[in-house]
TrEMBL record:
Keywords: Nucleotidyltransferase, Transferase. InterPro entries: GalU_uridylyltTrfase_bac/arc, NTP_transferase_dom, Nucleotide-diphossugar_trans. Transmembrane segments: none annotated. PANTHER family: UTP--GLUCOSE-1-PHOSPHATE URIDYLYLTRANSFERASE. This is UTP--glucose-1-phosphate uridylyltransferase. The keyword Chloroplast does not apply. GO terms for molecular function: UTP:glucose-1-phosphate uridylyltransferase activity.
């Protein structure tokens, strides 16, 4: 496949976060801490770790916390420097140095497809990754780098798929697929948004990682509102999958994924990530065992 312009990354962060009210009344859900970093920082770190240094965050109203987080804070940095607290200084500077962060307002949330369309002017004619902040992918289990490689190899849209319990498939987009020559990669032949268990074409769920060609913008511009009266990215992907000249491929992810979009799963994500850390894990694991024994 011929060389293309460098990948950019798009992170939609304009949702209202109603499941986390009242915590999200004045703070974006993407800024809720997962252990000691806001959820969105994990996502930006993932993009940067895959070699993408141009990141566009699609924001809604009252999301200036996100902008501030990735900006430098000279007075705080100076205080930490004067105190000799170099560990904390490094953490503060790290979030400012991760990537070139750009921001654009969505106005009102009209669906994931509309959020992606808001990135058109910035992305221009670059291929780009879309990373949803609700899905945190463990840095020890690379997914995005694999997807970027598949895009380079096949010159087609690549989405992330994960096997889920059939009883949970109604919470996701479900893919109908055909095998390819690679065991971990499938050709997507169709997509169904949040199907009933009996109507699902498989238990392969679409999770929040996509690598897209800028050609998707032309499709999104004429995609009518679908489920929930929103412009669905799934509808555009279905059109791409049905076009033999374009196509959609799926990378099947079998690593560690943390769902922070649900209150219970958010708490589980914090416990899982903290228990794996050298500084917190030993004490936390011991406490969890003791606590579980009292239940």
């Amino acid at each position: 496949m011929s060389a293309h312009k460098p990948f950019k990354a798009v992170i939609p962060a304009a949702g209202l976060g109603t499941r986390f009210l009242p915590a999200t009344k004045a703070m974006p859900k993407e800024m809720l801490p997962v252990v000691d970093k806001p959820a969105i920082q994990y996502v930006v770190e993932e993009a940067a770790g895959a070699g993408i240094d141009d990141v566009l965050i699609i924001m809604g109203r009252n999301k200036t916390n996100i902008e501030n987080h990735f900006d430098s804070v000279p007075e705080l940095e100076q205080k930490l420097r004067e105190k000799g607290d170099l560990d904390k200084l490094a953490k503060v500077e790290h979030s400012s140095d991760l990537a070139n962060i750009h921001l654009v307002r969505q106005g009102e949330p009209k669906g994931l497809g509309h959020a992606v369309l808001c990135a058109k002017a910035h992305v221009d004619d670059h291929p780009f990754a879309v990373l949803l902040g609700d899905d945190l992918i463990d840095e020890r289990d690379p997914l995005l780098t694999t997807m970027l490689s598949e895009y380079d190899k096949r010159g087609a849209t690549v989405i992330a798929l994960m096997e889920v319990d059939p009883d949970s498939i109604h919470l996701y987009g479900a893919a109908s697929v055909e095998p390819t020559e690679d065991a971990g990669v499938v050709k997507v032949t169709g997509l169904v948004e949040k199907p009933k268990k009996e109507d699902a074409p498989s238990n392969l769920a679409v999770i929040g990682r996509y690598v897209l060609s800028p050609d998707v913008f032309e499709i999104l511009e004429r995609t009518a509102p679908g489920k929930g009266n929103e412009i669905q990215l799934t509808d555009a992907l279905e059109e791409l999958a049905a076009n033999p000249a374009q196509g959609v491929y799926g990378v099947i992810f079998r690593g560690r994924r943390y769902d922070t979009g649900d209150r219970l799963d958010y708490i589980k994500a914090i416990v899982q990530l903290a228990s794996d850390r050298d500084d917190l894990g030993p004490s936390l694991r011991s406490w969890v065992k003791d606590f579980a024994a009292t239940l």
